[in-house]
């Protein structure tokens, strides 16, 4: 948009130098967002700049900042104006014609280098990002912001900002995206079933820790069950698909739990069997057949006058 078209669209005169200001609350620090914004406003007033504000986001403290924006705009109707959102075209047009972008929005870091506009980045919200030569970082207090604004408004720094190269400009990015999408659409693999790859899982086969024979057996049982369920799905008519998918999800969810319970039962059974025979309540020694002979009460049979494992048989 032209400067005149933008001024008409937002209902605000742009014939004097103005700052494009966006300030969001810092969520990672302990400082008061409202106090930081007040320091920014005080520095703007000292510079004598007009300002176009875009309001803060919904993070904690954003409502306080927006209330202060409304208050300063109401106190200076010809100097300040505010918008909840300007839209992409009007916002970038306002950035193009402004004297400086001030605040802590990511747009000041990412977009201003492409337009060659000076930017004062206040506080630590954008800390750690790649910065272009058109950006001045400062602390969120009035003196620091005022000094940064004075430097940004100087002719020397304005010339430096116009020569800045954006670290975020990848060149023909949209063209590369389009070419990748075209190659994918024309690929012979388009429309084919998805491919799945088994990756190594620690403790489960190749690439992991050695597996016990029992764990190996459970893995094979699990794979066989899933294979059978998948084959069953291909044999059922379409109108059963919804119900079958639901059933498969339930089975796949319950099967690991069932396997875990079965494994615990098996371990307990092996543990009990490994105990000393004399200590087990179902073991009996047969005194008549010599020490070391053990009878199991769990399995009984007839042997002459009694059942092996019963008091009658053990006493023979």
Description:
With 316 residues, the protein is an alpha/beta fold. It is 47% helix and 11% strand. It has twelve helices and ten strands. The protein has helices at residues 3-10, 33-47, 62-75, 88-97, 106-110, 112-115, 142-152, 155-162, 173-185, 213-235, 241-273, 311-314, and strands at 18-22, 50-54, 80-83, 100-103, 119-122, 135-138, 283-285, 294-296, 302-303, 306-307. The strands form three sheets. A six-stranded parallel beta sheet has the order 3-2-1-4-5-6, covered by helices on one side. A two-stranded antiparallel sheet has the order 7-8. A two-stranded antiparallel sheet has the order 9-10. Helix 3 (62-75) links the parallel strand 2 and strand 3 (80-83). The chain is elongated and about 90 Å long. The protein starts with a helix and ends with a helix. The relative contact order is 0.07. Mean pLDDT is 79; it is low at 236-240 and 278-316.
Q: Please estimate the helix content.
A: 40-55%
Tell me the span between the first and last alpha carbons. 111 Å
Strand order of the largest sheet: 3-2-1-4-5-6
How many alpha or pi helices? 12
| Shape, per Cα inertia axes | elongated
**Arithmetic mean of pLDDT:** 79
